[in-house]
Design goal:
Biased composition (Basic residues): 318-335
Organism: Trapa incisa
Structural class: alpha+beta
InterPro entries: Fpg-like_C, FPG_cat, FPG_Glyclase, FPG_N, H2TH_FPG, Ribosomal_uS13-like_H2TH
Domain Formamidopyrimidine-DNA glycosylase catalytic: 2-129
Radius of gyration: 20 Å
Subunit structure: Monomer.
Strand content: 15-25%
Length: 343
Amino acid sequence: MPELPEVEAARKAVEEHCSGKKIKKAVVADDPKVIDGITSSEFEAALVGKKILGAHRKGKNMWLLLDSSPFPSFQFGMAGAIYIKGVAVTKYKRSAVKDTDEWPSKYSKIFIELDDGLELSFTDKRRFAKVRLLKDPTSMPPISELGPDALLDPMTVDELAEAVSKKKIAIKTLLLDQSFMAGIGNWIADEVLYQAGIHPLEIASNLSQERCATLHKSIKEVIEKAVEVDADSSQFPSNWIFHYREKKPGKAFVNGKMIDFISAGGRTTAYVPELQKLSGGAEAAKSDDKQKSKTSKRKKTDDGLNGPGSGEEEGKKGKIQHKPRARGRNKQVKRKSSDTDKL
């Protein structure tokens, strides 16, 4: 599923190529599963004639800033993707449609033609995305229910340590919860835990201040690097577990060490037992009775590469309630602002 880096790559492309242009034509699919709470004709009428001023993001959600409300918002789900004709935009590999396919794609949910002839399309092959018209995206669900954005509004080490100290659940389950921290999905969670040497089933509240600091550093470095290269996985460091997490059990190795596969937070999870020890032993492993080892057979899932994520379905596994931190308003610059993975 598309995660923060993929959605951020889409946001940057839209802002760079579409800002300042008027919407000349809009075609919205008659698909109420994806187009949420409004008819396609009403959606189209709300877009035509509007000028695009920019694009914003929070977590794995993106929305267009127009010269007047309402604003179209995109919750990418499992396979949502932004296409701009003639412009390369990195996509989650299982979202991608072929270059030889018709344009706009048969999977297009919103097609927009701008006044200079540029064409934009939001596609969704799996139909788990949600496209909405919102008067104020940041104050309305699902965006209002998100935790701090992992890139634009990151927790400090002390804030992270305090937050995890109250959570007696597996650390990966916590990282996947978009109400805790927005933007981290399945592949990022696996990567940051691998880089930090933390077992995915480690109980969050067991983490020391030192290990929280290591985790904080890993989250920052992984996300910043992925965003820096516009989510182009071919440019991810070769020592990332990302490159090997879809290989078969027994044939998956990273830096010479075997990768094992289990279920954590309801998602297939890649980790290195030799480096990621479970300090809580059996007690930690029992914390989630749904987290069963899949070392002999790896279940085929929709986790992915080239920008994979854990989107909409992760959150449906269980949203974690917590008090939101009082933070300043998200800014759309270097601290810019947009699926528990429920959202």
